[in-house]
Each structure stands twice: as C-alpha cells, then as structure tokens.
C-alpha cells in the first residue's frame, strides 16, 4: 500500500523539479543565451541579464536588445524575421529551337526560393588627408565585415543533347546542348569580389 502512494509522489516531485530548472528562452535568441561558452562546464552561463546595462536615457528603451561590441552577441534578430532558407526545384517546359528547324519541347527544371543573407559590420578604418583638415574620415572596409549571401541555384546539373529536325537544311538535323537542372539548393557566394 505504501508503494502505491510513494511511486506517484516521487514521479510528481521529479516532474516538478525538471520543469523548474528549465529556463524560458527569450524570443529570437540564437544561440540560446543559457548555453555555456564552449564546452567549459565550470564557467557560469551567459545570459542577457548578466551583461552590463547602459543607463543613458537614450538607450533606456532597448537596452537589453543592444550589446557592447566587446561582448559576444547572442540575439541576432527576432525569430519572426529569421526565416529558414528554402529552395525548390520546379518542373518547366522548355522549348528548344533553331532557325530552319522544327522546335522541340523538353521537360527541364528551374530553381525558385528565398535564401538568407547577412552583413555584419566590424569597424571603420580612418584615413587622414594632408591637404584638408586633420580630421580622420571614416572609410568603409567591406572586407573586414562578415558577409554571407546565398541564393537559390542549381546544385546538380547535367547536359543533354537535343536533336532537332531541320527539313530544309543539309544534313536534315541539328543538335543543341541544353543544361538540365536536377536539383537546386541555397548556395553561398563570394561577395567580397563585388566591392
């Protein structure tokens, strides 16, 4: 009789203890602010409340949203703005044609989707000009910034040869090579060359 009462009580106590120790995550925190730095179990958890708070009236409103650049940033953006990448491979009827030949329709695919891109500035470099005042003019150094730009593009392609019938030409056929898309995905591209 004692065990019939003791076992449910122990289970209920265990559930209460595990739910109390679980901390609620602030919305949009990536990674979790309760995750410890690295694999060091002895170091205390870094939370938004443990960071130094700015007390200037201008920053009072969103003081927990903006972190000092010397600290590790935890909140990238709100979760509602950070959508997951998606890139679909959709079927497409493609017409292959050549002057003097009968056109032919083949089934191909095209890429369609939305991929994330990021630009996180690091710092501005200063340059002084000798003929103007000695004030340093900030110069944007895009190479020192973190940039990631991805777009939906083919990841697996093949080339097919399409034979077209050309009644008025000698020989009466022509061949055209067509790129056939097999699969698409979000692929990051090098954007440093664009600046």
How much is the average pLDDT?
71
* CATH H-tier superfamily of one domain: Cystine-knot cytokines
Uncertain residue ranges = 28-63
Query: Shape, please?
Result: elongated
Helix-and-strand structural type: mainly beta
Summarize the amount of helix as a percent range.
10-25%
Largest sheet: 3 strands, antiparallel
Number of alpha- plus pi-helical segments: 1
Gap from first CA to last CA: 78 Å
What gyration radius follows from the Cα positions, in whole Å? 30 Å
Beta-strand percentage? 35-45%
CATH fold annotation of one domain: Cystine Knot Cytokines, subunit B
The helix-strand sequence is HEEEEEEE
Q: What's the arrangement of strands in the largest beta sheet?
A: 3-6-7
CATH class of one domain: Mainly Beta
Task: Indicate the CATH architecture of one domain.
Answer: Ribbon
Number of strands: 7
Describe what you observe in this structure.
- With 195 residues, the protein is mainly beta.
- It has a domain at 86-195: Cystine Knot Cytokines, subunit B (Ribbon), CATH 2.10.90.10.
- Helices cover 10% and strands 36% of the residues.
- The protein is built from one helix and seven strands, in the order αβββββββ.
- The strands form three sheets. Strands 3-6-7 form a three-stranded antiparallel beta sheet, with no helix packed on it.
- 2% of the residues are buried.
- Residues 42-55 have a biased composition (Low complexity).
- One of its GO terms (cellular component) is extracellular space.
- Pfam families: DAN.
- It comes from Triplophysa rosa (Cave loach).
């Amino acid at each position: 009789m004692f065990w019939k009462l003791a076992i449910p009580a122990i289970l209920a106590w265990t559930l209460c203890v595990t739910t109390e120790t679980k901390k609620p995550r602030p919305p949009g925190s990536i990674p979790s602010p309760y995750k410890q730095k690295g694999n060091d179990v002895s170091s205390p958890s870094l939370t938004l409340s443990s960071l130094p708070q700015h007390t200037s009236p201008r920053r009072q409103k969103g003081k927990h949203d903006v972190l000092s650049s010397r600290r590790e940033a935890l909140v990238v953006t709100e979760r509602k703005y950070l959508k997951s990448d998606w890139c679909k491979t959709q079927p497409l009827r493609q017409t292959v044609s050549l002057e003097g030949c009968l056109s032919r329709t083949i089934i191909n695919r095209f890429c369609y989707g939305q991929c994330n891109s990021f630009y996180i500035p690091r710092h501005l470099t200063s340059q002084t000009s000798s003929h103007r005042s000695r004030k340093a003019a900030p110069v944007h150094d895009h190479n020192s910034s973190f940039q990631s730009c991805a777009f939906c593009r083919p990841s697996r392609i093949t080339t097919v040869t399409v034979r077209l019938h050309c009644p008025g030409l000698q020989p009466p056929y022509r061949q055209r090579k067509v790129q056939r898309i097999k699969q698409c995905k979000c692929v990051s591209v090098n954007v440093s060359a664009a600046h």
